[in-house]
C-alpha cells in the first residue's frame, strides 16, 4: 500500500477508533483542516479511516424567548397574580390582553386553572419546565434539554436554530509497515551525521509505470534527408544548390528533352509567365543538336527548335536541372556532386503523389567510369540506407543511355521503384562541353522515407501530427 506523506502524518497523530471533529484532528496532527480532510478521504478509500458529515443544529433564543427568560413566562407571571381568584378583566389589565391570552391558554392546557363566571381560580401550581430549557439553551447547553422541550419551545417560537455541518474523522486501522520511520531522501546531512545507521530506507517500486518523456528531436523526414546527405559526403561528393525557378532551357532543353515531350506540357509542369534572355555558343549548340544532331553523330529530334520555349521559366520538375547546369560550368573531370532539394510537378494529391517533393540527385563525371560503376554506386548507397535487396529495371529518359529504374525490396510491399538513373547521352554532354562520361541519378526521397518509416501515405510527412511524430524513434533501429 502506498501512502502519501499527509496520510502518514494523520495516521500517526490520531488515536485508533476515536472520533475526532475536523478541528480537533487538525490540532492533534498539526495539519491544516484542508489537508486533514484530503488525507482522511484518501485513507477512507483504503479502508483505513472513516469520514462522517453530521448536520448539527445550533439553538438560540428568539427575542421573545430572551424577554421571557428575563421577565418570566406569561403563564408563570399569571400564576403569581393568582394567589387569589381574579376576574378576567382585571387580569387582562395587569398582563395586557395578548399576554394574558397566551398565559391562560397554557395554564388551561396544563389543567392548572378553572374559570367560573369570568373569575379565574388557580387549582394547582404547574411545573415551568420551559423556563429551565430556555436557560440551558441561552447558556449554550442545548444538549441538556429534552427533545420534547425543544419541540415545544420551537412551536412557541421562543427558540430558533442554525444548521451547521460537522465533519468527524475516525482512524479505523493503522498499517504497521507503512508507518515505520523510513528514510525517503538520502541527503548529505544524513550521510555526514551518520544518522542513516540502523534506519530503514524506503524501497523504490520499480513496477510503477513511469511517465513518457518526449524530448525535442528533428522531424523524421529531415533526419532521413540528413542521413542521405551524410552518405554522399562520406563518399567524397560535393553538395550543390540551385534555384527553384529555372529556365525551361536548363530543366528540359539542355537535357535533350524534345520540345514536344509530354512532360513539358502545361498539364505536367508549372510555368511562370516570365522569360529570360538566352544566347551564346552553348544555346546555339543545343539548338543544333535538337534540330539535326550537330557534331554528336546523332540525327537530333528534327524540326525547328524554338528559343522562346526554352526562355520560359518553370518551377523545376527535377533536380537534374541543377546538376546539368553545374556540369556545364564545371566540365572538366573529375566531378562528384549531389543535390537534395524540392521539385514541383502538377500532380493530383493522393497517398503517393504530391505537387512538391524532394529528390536526391547526383552525378559522377570522369574519364573511366561506366554503367557498372553507376549500378555499384547506387547499390552501395541503398545498402548504407538499410536496403539490402536492390535491382535495376531498364528505363527510358531522353538524356541517358542506358537508363535504369532502381528498385528496392520492402517487406510486405514488394519491389518499389525509387527514381531513375543512367549515363548521360553525348547529345547532352557534347553541346555543353562536358568532357568524359557522366553517371547520373535522381531518387525520390519521399518514397525512401515512406519505406524507412513504414508509412502508407506520403502526406503524413507534412502533417503536424504530434502523436505520430512522437512515436517515431529518434534513432535508427
Ligand atoms: N530526372 C529523373 C531521374 C533521373 C535523373 C538522372 C538520370 C536519369 C534519371 C526524374 O526526375 O525522374
UniProtKB/TrEMBL annotation:
Residue ranges of every copy of the Aminoacyl-transfer RNA synthetases class-II family profile domain listed in the record: 210-464
Subcellular location: Cytoplasm
UniProt-recorded Gene Ontology molecular function terms: ATP binding; magnesium ion binding; phenylalanine-tRNA ligase activity; tRNA binding
Keywords: Aminoacyl-tRNA synthetase, ATP-binding, Cytoplasm, Ligase, Magnesium, Metal-binding, Nucleotide-binding, Protein biosynthesis
Binding site for L-phenylalanine: 320, 359-361, 399, 424
Assigned EC number: 6.1.1.20
UniProt catalytic activity: tRNA(Phe) + L-phenylalanine + ATP = L-phenylalanyl-tRNA(Phe) + AMP + diphosphate + H(+)
Gene Ontology biological process: phenylalanyl-tRNA aminoacylation
Gene3D superfamilies, A to Z: 1.10.10.2320, 1.10.10.2330, 3.30.1370.240, Bira Bifunctional Protein, Domain 2 (3.30.930.10)
InterPro entries listed in its UniProt record: aa-tRNA-synth_II (IPR006195), aa-tRNA-synth_II/BPL/LPL (IPR045864), Phe-tRNA-synth_IIc_asu (IPR004529), Phe_tRNA_ligase_alpha_bac/arc (IPR022917), Phenylalanyl-tRNA_Synthase (IPR002319), WH_DNA-bd_sf (IPR036390)
Superkingdom of source: Archaea
Cofactors required: Mg(2+)
Catalytic EC class: ligase
Binding site for Mg(2+): 401
A matching Pfam family: tRNA-synt_2d
One of the record's GO cellular component terms: cytoplasm
Cofactor note: Binds 2 magnesium ions per tetramer.
Keyword Metal-binding: yes
PANTHER family noted in UniProt: PHENYLALANINE--TRNA LIGASE ALPHA SUBUNIT (PTHR11538:SF40), PHENYLALANYL-TRNA SYNTHETASE (PTHR11538)
Subunit-level organization: Tetramer of two alpha and two beta subunits.
Family of this protein: Belongs to the class-II aminoacyl-tRNA synthetase family. Phe-tRNA synthetase alpha subunit type 2 subfamily.
Protein name: Phenylalanine--tRNA ligase alpha subunit
Organism: Archaeoglobus veneficus (strain DSM 11195 / SNP6)
GN (gene name): pheS
